[in-house]
Design goal:
The protein has six helices and six strands, in the order βαβααβαββαβα. By secondary structure, the chain is an alpha/beta fold. It is globular.
Amino acid sequence: MNIMLFHSTYGLRPAVHAAAERLRAAGHEVQVPDLFAGRTFETVEEGMAHQEEIGRDELLKRAVLAAAPFSDSGLVYAGFSFGGSIAQHLAFADDKARGLLLLHGTSDIADDAAVDELPVQLHLADPDPFEPHDWLTAWYLRMQRAGADVEVHRYPGAGHLYTDPDLPDYDEEAADQTWKAALAFLDSL
């Protein structure tokens, strides 16, 4: 499986490279674009300020350009938090998308969005300050209405980016469970 893996608002940090290596060790090809051109951040606030400075349209353009050379093969789009939002947008725009793996983040869905039974797996903390329950319920219903085949995994007590061992949110047990489920999901595609 060819996977396009997008980083979080912290930028392309070691945890993203480690995730890519984990996926490669399981037999997948993984592309890890750097949407922030080498910049990384110590706090969510710094990363969000940088995102706003670049602008959503420019970030989506960078993501599309990174994915374009690989999209003919039918990509699985994946991402961490902000990167999940980017991955979701690209998967919905790519009729050859094979799947969508969301780690810690989702995005808005247009009312007229439609996909043909796109397999989607979401992993997130419960509760998650960036993905409140009301939002997730509405997101899930809109995803189903759009035609996605959605599977949601929640991890009570974990922090938002609980798969990143270099952040205070890290939860080893939740991260291990996430990677087991994610690898099984990818194998099913």
